Amino acid sequence: MTKLIATPLSDLMGAEITEFDCREPVDAKTRDAIIEALYRHQILVFREQDLTPEQQIAFSEAFGPLEMHVNQANQGYERPNFHVVTNLDDNGVPMPDPPPEKIFNGTRTWHSDKSYMPRPSMATFLYGVAVTKEGGETLFASLTAAYDALDEDEKIRLGGLKCVHSWEQSLRNSRSRPVTEEERQLSPPVTHPLIRTHPGDGRKALYIGMHASHIAGADEESGRAQLFALLDFATQARFVYAHQWQKGDLVVWDNPSLVHKSAPFDRQKERRHLHRTVVRGDIPV
Ligand SMILES: [Fe+2]
């Protein structure tokens, strides 16, 4: 078994793992130790990695099947389970901002990956190939810490509610481009519990974020206002950890227990290029 030493990065959540090579095959004991650390710390940062896309895919796949692009089919992508998050063109030069009809702000607003799908993401793996000097942090807010901070009556009240998540509404919530007809077909609204029980360790969390549209069975507008108020509560500074990227970081986070977003940065000056793989999760309960 490869030794795993997780050193906390804050009092709230996050731990860094040094002297660990993610290129090595992951045996069952190592995998279990990583999963246990991930559940405990919610975010793991494997420092000083040097990974090809194939090596990142192999490491991620040790934790479950990976999500594919959009409709789970290979639409001609060379690697359908591998995504690039970048502000750079093919020559490594920052690209100009997209025109308004293509603007997507979703990654800059608080969300839990793919919560608008019937089986949202379990763990996201983001690897820093080029990282910003200033800004561009990935911010995480603990939905378990926020849940724990609710008063008991509120926990009981919210525990009886279900929440509709919708990609179409998410684009509206983040003031992004309109939904396409294809996206509407592929991602109809889904309903999840508002209080989610973690599939791995049973902790309870608010299950909210920008993909959350309204409370099932209630007036949409007032339900949406309630959800935004809960998101404001859950993303107060006391529940937030900001990850300042170092080149070679492989950051892994536990989607059921947190929301995340990227902080602004100078997109014309800075170079930010990240490789992303995602392990598919369970149906939320
Ligand atoms: Fe995300």
Overview of this protein structure:
By secondary structure, the chain is α+β, with helices and mostly antiparallel strands. It has one domain (6-280): 4-Layer Sandwich (Double-stranded beta-helix), CATH 3.60.130. The chain contains seven helices and 15 strands. A seven-stranded mixed β-sheet has the order 1-2-3-13-5-15-4, covered by helices on one side. The chain is globular. The mean pLDDT is 94. Residues 107, 111, 113, 260 line the site of fe (ii) ion (FE2). The site of fe (ii) ion has 4 residues, from loops.
What's the arrangement of secondary structure elements?
Layout: E1 6-8, E2 15-17, H1 28-41, E3 43-46, H2 53-61, E4 83-86, E5 121-130, E6 138-142, H3 143-149, H4 152-159, E7 162-165, H5 167-173, H6 181-186, E8 190-193, E9 195-197, E10 204-206, E11 212-215, H7 220-234, E12 240-243, E13 250-254, E14 258-262, E15 273-280
Parallel strand pairs: 2-3
Antiparallel strand pairs: 1-2, 3-13, 4-15, 5-13, 5-15, 6-12, 6-14, 7-8, 7-11, 9-10
Residues 107, 111, 113, 260 line the site of fe (ii) ion (FE2).
